[in-house]
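Worked Example 4.2. Consider the chain below.
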Amino acid sequence: MKILSLFLFCILTFDLSAKSISGVVLSIHDGDTITIMPDGAVKKAKVRLLGVDTPEIDFNGHTQGAAAEMARETLKLILPLNAQIKIELPSGSMDSNGRYLGQIFYKGVDINLEMLKMGMGAVYFIYPYDKKMVVEYHEAAELADLMKVGIFSPEYSQTPLPYMFRQNVKGVLGTNLIADYQTKKLFTADRIEQVPHYRRVFFSSEETALIHGFNW
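Applying the procedure from the previous section yields the following structure tokens:
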């Protein structure tokens, strides 16, 4: 029994440990998705910027137009093609489209954080998440909103946040619960506007949210 418990502990410890990969940037699809060639690999991979959600270039045949183009061009400026990058990612971190979810570093700079500082997207975390990362990224998003830069500028004031845009295109409400990271209060999807965008985190289940200190 002790041996089994030790074995399970080792598995859990490994699963929760951070991993990283490195590679070269091959192309940039939009403000939060790139294609890389991992070092030592023969097959390219797609990487989505963890914690960042930028306007959609093409979602089910719909686009957010100029806002999406702005985000993509900004990412191209700060993350040039053929750049050698390092990507920090949670163990097994992939989205439903088979893309790595990672924190991209180029010359020591957190590219995800820079995109949020410039207001190129909304901060976007679905549990599980790193608490320190959430706080830092939320602060960046709040400052971008305060300074009215990027998609928070008057020019794009009528542009919905990307995840809201996707819901509108599909004609459905989100399935995740919304939580205010500061007040620890939970809200249903239809009450999302009661939480400032720079304080939102998302949970796929009420049980998980309650376990981690959030409540109604």
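The two ends are 40 Å apart (CA to CA). The domain at 2-121 is CATH 2.40.50.90 (OB fold (Dihydrolipoamide Acetyltransferase, E2P)). Compare this with Example 4.1 before moving on.
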